[in-house]
Amino acid sequence: MSDSPAAGSPDSPQEAATAAAARLAELTGVERHDVALVLGSGWLPAVDALGEATAEIDTTDLPGFSAAAVVGHSGKIRSIKAGDKQLLVFLSRTHYYEGKGVAAVVHGVRTAAAAGCRAIVLTNGCGGLKETWSPGTPVLISDHINLTGRSPIEGAHFVDLTDLYSPRLRALCREVDPSLDEGVYVQFPGPHYETPAEIGMVRAIGGHLVGMSTTLEAIAAREAGLEVLGISLVTNLAAGISGEPLDHAEVLEAGRAAASRMGDLLGRVVPGI
Ligand code: 8IG
Question: How far, in Å, is the centroid of ligand 1 from the Cα of 211?
Answer without folding.
Answer: 4
